[in-house]
């Protein structure tokens, strides 16, 4: 599967359609874009992360590296994607994906150290991602501490100092704009 | 022989063979000596080949797990033992029953049942690998058999049991309830397939699950039912598949048909979702106008043009003699006079002939119904969209998570443009800082009196602006009436287009003025935006209504004029007849050329013309401001920047931003005018479609080439229903005057489809009398008498009241539930603290805490979630009492309840990195925790 630059077989398309939130056109488009990214010389079906990151859709996203890592199924977890991983990514970010799946992946993207919970360190990294790289937009340590404290106060229901997935989903599910903004379209 | 293989593989793994079990086996083998059994055996051969292969694979996995399992949960054995003895009794009873029924049952079922068992067993097997078994290993043999009976013990299965199951399934036949179960399993598989896309698994795993489920379905779907029912079922299944495929293709087709998807996506990636929301709104409007256009074009304009009397056959269809000279001039046509006025585009052209053409098309009726239908359709669409939006937004008003939302949901993943991304970074930072400051010092009220004073002053100024603009419009409209009376030919272009120009200019400059004024008020930007929108709304509305009032005055004038024309008409007729009579009394009366016949002013056409002109001038101003305000400005800034004394790009003029709310408002008002005027000028929807089509391209181009992303990026979703509500208000307000004119003003006597009638809606009555049987008219008249209508209205009011009060109760109940939830949270917190104090091991405390939470969330989580969570937990080898309990509970309740192996996620081949991310429990810690606890147990 993932047959390099060749045309996607019909039954695969219909299977992908059944397994993702994408339509046929979107899958074919994704395949086209993906095979453009693929190296012609190398035989491996994986596209390294650096290449994925050059896509205009991800270029200015502060979470682009995290997104690649989360959706990558490669063994050393270097963020390289197969076509199927790529489809998973697009499916989770598609228009019709459910809140559950979106929040699940959002949680994993925000969980910078991959330990299954959002602790203070993760939140700090998250804030830094959101406020950009320049110093003028960064928050000072005092503000950061206050912010993280507030966030934990709001969403850490069991008061264990971290936000776990169910707490995260609880918070996210009430948000009016999450589903509309957690989208990437090719 | 496959059978040998099977036995061999079984003994390979089995640890100890129960005496009971071997007895059963002997019985089974005997049973197999039956002639039937032989046949069955041959059928099975292929199956077994496959199964054995899979089994050996499974066993390899199992073995590694069984080591772990052996250590675990010795304390559980007592519980398990009790249950097993109970179940054994059950099994024996059942078995004897089954042996009896076997003879009666059809042969096919057994093989079916066998087949069915295999994948299910596989799955159970798979579950076993990730799910811990509360019972210890020594019990496995017995329990395996128990499972055959209830066929649903998916909670805990082991490698050894399945081979024994295979044996037993040969003997047991299918009872109706098992058939039921099989059906259930099939249904569950189907359900699994449909929800598969909603699972956060990697594709490889999803693919595998899909394949397994498909294989399963293929084997058993057709096999359900018997005889004819079987065929029917198979047929149904086939049709269902076709239908699904068709639906999918149709879905694809639909998405392919959505226009401008790529354009909007492009804008989305450059400017974020809020600018894109304007274009989506524009597209939506375009769709609605398309349908309105289809209605008017297909049911009114085309029939009249094709089947009605041709141009020049009647006075109303000819340009009067006086105007004929200039009727083809562009200036006149641009003004919708001349030939344009006497065409299907306007009300006056239509004939009042009841039925036209060989189709006997009821033209007046159709005209009336289309007018009503346009409005009704618009109401329906707007309200439906609003309701859907409201549903989607759900509990968006919850302000408990202010900070968390800012943190987790503020990034717009659609942004693909570095500049927009920078703006977004900045706006997120400021919003964070603002929130922090607000939190730190909850509202410092420095000099509140000054702010209040300024706010009052600002509102006063705005009111002055509104009143001034209203007066200006009224004044201009009156002046234009004076001009019109004196004859427009004597005046220049400005005098003729004064009204529209003034309205458009006011619409252009007043919002800017409001913007300046609102600086006085010092509101939060979001609130300021709402005020601004409200004021613009009031301005537009005021302007529109002054315009309408002025139009009403004009209508009254025209009607007076009509009276005099009517008088003149009779005189003229008399003259004509006198003339002809004098010449030749026997010849048929010579009719005058239709162009010479004197005619009334036809106020309906006048109203239609006014609206069309308004739309045209509005469109023009929009496009021109776009070109000048955006394009020229951008060009200037871009090229003069090289030779200017300050930086133009970042300094004063800079590039313009795309004003989402202003543009949306413009669109809404434009639509309002369409709704208002469409009855008198059937061409309006067509014009609007054209306008929207052009603006789509023009604005897309303008946005991409000369606008910069907004500095303050507002979320699109929050304001969606706000715009919709405005649209609804506008729709209501614009239908009011239209309905008023239709109901209360008699139509012109010599033009339009309703000429000669007292009121426009008389056409309904006419149709009822002439085209329907008499009894129908009677029924209708009964139904429409006040004695019936009033109670009906009363009933509706009561229904509204009832629905409102129920919704209030629901709200109350919701609030109550929320309170309860919060109380529970508090309680859980306390419990957690206590647990934390008690537990010597801090990690154990965390474990119990997570469990508490899991329980709590269970309360409001759906069952599906519960199931998946349960398995995921199991997969992590997370030994919690919770799962144990649930397993126990499941075992105790009947087989119907137990039967959900197929909803279980299939074999997990997760990569280690994804392991920790499953709902409901702290994962890595739990792994550690498990290890420590097992050590303790040893």
UniProtKB/TrEMBL annotation, chain A:
GO terms for molecular function: calcium ion binding; magnesium ion binding. Keywords: Calcium, Magnesium, Metal-binding, Repeat. The keyword Repeat applies. Residues 98-133, 143-178 form the EF-hand domain. InterPro entries: CIBP, EF-hand-dom_pair, EF_Hand_1_Ca_BS, EF_hand_dom. The keyword Metal-binding applies. PROSITE patterns: EF_HAND_1, EF_HAND_2. CDD domains: EFh. This is EF-hand domain-containing protein. The lineage of its organism: Eukaryota, Metazoa, Chordata, Craniata, Vertebrata. The gene is CIB1.
